Amino acid sequence: MAERFEDILRKTDLDKEEIKVLLASEGDQMDRLLRRGLEVKLDHLDNSVHLRGLIEFGNVCEKNCLYCGLRSGNEKVDRYCLSDEEVLECARLARELRYGSVAIQSGERSDPEFVARITQLVREIKKIDGGSLGITLSLGEQSEETYRQWFEAGAHRYLLRIESSDEELYYKIHPRNDRHSFRRRLECLETLQRIGYQTGTGVMVGLPFQTLDHLAADLLFFKRMDVAMVGLGPYIPHPDTPLYRFRDLIPSDAARMDMTLRMIAVLRIMMPEINMVAATANQTIDPQGREKAIAAGANVIMPNLTQGDYRESYFIYPNKACVKDTPDQCQTCLDIRLAAIGHRILYDAWGDSLAFTKKKRLL
Ligand code: SAM
Ligand code: SF4
């Protein structure tokens, strides 16, 4: 068995059964897997970590995902939306702190006012320092026309997690209706790729009803879709959401963290040149979570740029990490934490996905 594990670890073209063996590893074998994830990353990329300054644009959401604190059915949320000037202030701060990119994230809205505001904001951010900032959007499902409009305005990356690539599990964590259509989410990902975005997706790890089979299928889905970026993070139960009542069905914090790390390492082996985000949710359930994710193969961190009170209203899940840190505290803390694990932040760079850049050159 130990021999078989080592053989599998040396492969890159893993099948579902092999992925499951790696995902089930524990103790020394798990350590070997995580080291392999790091090794592959250092071979194909390097020890640099890219930053995306996160701007939490607003917490108004038209959807009702069963796991998320921002869901429209949650009446306890104090809803906000940043002003244009507040968004631009965050972007200017990102430039000042020498982050190469910003990421604008928000609850899902598709009203014309929202779409037009984002277009205008992307254009304005592009004017900062002659287009020095890369722009990632994570604004949910939109029409092809909207995605095109934002792309033409200057956004070049888009994050839309599939949440689970298994349709049945998807509908256990979303209402089964047109507004939460699995098909539509898939189509959106395809549209984003067709338009030319560096497209990222991902899943939550440790959801109720999720099995090893689901997780292995998720990794194969990312590979099949040939995405440029992936964001994986542990699911964190939120008390004001319907999924909370299944919290006893999920693995412990430590087990969800470990599974996330194994997912990151296996995916790095399968897709050595993609960008992979060490999600804030990792740090929420483990103080060292983000560094552990980087040391297992992730290479992107999204420090929060949103100021003060708003941060506490972007309450996707409880105990969100760094909610009270200011952006400059965040940066010093990151520099030190990453140096301690032999990594360094790559400042002043967009930090595009190598997988995407190479593919584009071939087209
Ligand atoms: N509304 C956009 C969307 O859904 O794509 C972007 C914002 S949404 C808050 C960003 C991500 O937060 C989701 O893709 C989901 O994976 C994650 N998320 C939401 N609730 C969570 C929870 N309870 N635990 C962990 N991650 C969660
Ligand atoms: Fe809205 Fe996104 Fe949360 Fe779903 S995950 S409720 S779309 S913010």
Walk me through what this model shows.
There is one protein chain. It contains 15 helices and 9 strands. The longest helix is centred in the first third of the chain and has 18 residues, at 27-44. The protein has 363 residues and is of the alpha/beta class. The N and C termini lie far apart (42 Å). β2, α5 and β3 form a beta-alpha-beta unit. The protein is globular. Bound molecules: S-adenosylmethionine (SAM) and iron/sulfur cluster (SF4). The site of S-adenosylmethionine has 19 residues, from loops. S-adenosylmethionine (SAM) is lined by residues 67-68, 70, 105, 107-108, 138, 140, 160-161, 163, 204, 233, 235-236, 238, 281, 316-317.
Quick one: biggest sheet? 9 strands, parallel
| Number of DSSP E strands | 9
Which secondary-structure class do the elements indicate? alpha/beta
Return residue spans where pLDDT drops below 50 for at least 5 consecutive residues. Answer: none
Number of helices: 15
3D shape = globular
Proportion of residues in helical segments: 40-55%
Oligomeric state of the chains in view:
single chain
Order of helices and strands, N to C?
Answer: HHHEHEHEHEHHEHEHEHHEHHEH
Mean pLDDT: 94
Round the Cα radius of gyration to an integer and report it: 19 Å
Bound molecules: S-adenosylmethionine, iron/sulfur cluster
Termini separation (Å)? 42 Å
The amount of beta strand, in percent, is 5-15%
